[in-house]
Amino acid sequence: MNFGIIAEGVTDQVVIEEIICAYLKDSNIEINPLQPKNKIDSGGWTKVFDYCKTKEFRNAFDWLDYVIIQLDTDAKESWPYENIPAASDGDREANIALRNRIIEIIKNSVGTEFFKKIEKKVLFAIAIESIECWILTFHATRKAHKTKVVNCLNTLNSSYLSKLGYTIDPLAKAYDHGRHYQKASKPIKKGLNTDRKQLNTSLVLFLECIESKCR
Fold first, then answer.
1. Given pLDDT bands bounded at 50, 70 and 90, which one contains residue 174?
2. Helix and strand tally (H, E) in the chain?
3. Which DSSP letter does residue 91 get?
4. Confidence at residue 170, expressed as pLDDT on a 0 to 100 scale
5. What is the Cα 182 distance to its own chain's centre?
6. pLDDT tens track for 101-135
7. Does position 175 have pLDDT exceeding 60, yes or no?
8. To 10 degrees, what angle do helices 131-139 and 10-24 make?
9. Cβ(201)–Cβ(96) under 8 Å?
10. Coil, strand or helix: which one is 147?
11. Alpha-carbon separation of residue 158 from 75, 78, 166, 210 (angstroms)
12. Residue in 13, 7, 68 with CA at minimum distance from that of residue 178
């Protein structure tokens, strides 16, 4: 199988690739970064929405089996879109509603008619509120931390990564091209065997998306 990843940044691609390879357990998986294309390309949520409107995006479905679209929701207040629900620690339904609204926005950006043609190939990795919340769920020893969606990076750094001898700089999260994200993502392979009720809700929804379309 070959995958393309459209993400906010290189560090997000690192985490997504770890999840895909660990979950599918397929040594022949090929991962292709579509946005950003390399370690020096700029990222951000605007780049994700912009890329989904391009001819390059449409052409990618001619040679890829699946395309993953990743977005964090923590900057949603800056987005030029209306009716975006708030995220909430401990409120699964509110977070599902937020994810569904983001997917709706992406579909509209792609174009509803074209999206119908590619829907079976699209996997949504919508992290509420950030992909650091997904990493946190694999390090957490407290139930509240496993499902946390607010202030995840600070909790990850202070409660877990600092004890391992490193932290992720919140002001330069992509530094060294994701080296610390690769280290922080190591527990994912083992952690995917955990009861899903103990995992972050938006991560579980991504896993279910992989399961329904790739298996």
1. low
2. 11, 4
3. -
4. 72
5. 14
6. 999 999 999 999 999 999 999 999 999 999 999 99
7. no
8. 50
9. yes
10. coil
11. 22, 27, 10, 31
12. 13
Single pTM value for the model: 0.95
- Joined together, the tokens standing for residue 13 give 């691609």
pLDDT band at 177 (very low <50, low <70, confident <90, very high): low
> 3-class SS at 154?
helix
Q: Can you tell me the distance from the alpha carbon of 82 to that of 147, in angstroms, rounded to the nearest whole number?
A: 26
The 10s digit of each residue's pLDDT in 139-151 is: 999 989 999 999 9
Q: Is the dihedral of CA 135, 74, 49, 116 positive or negative?
A: positive
Tokens of 170: 């919140």
With beta carbons less than 8 A apart as the criterion, state whether 129 and 75 touch. no
Contact (Cβ atoms closer than 8 angstroms) between residue 34 and residue 67: yes
Spatial separation of the C-alpha atoms in residues 203 and 200, rounded to whole Å: 5
Q: Does 178 score more than 80 pLDDT?
A: no
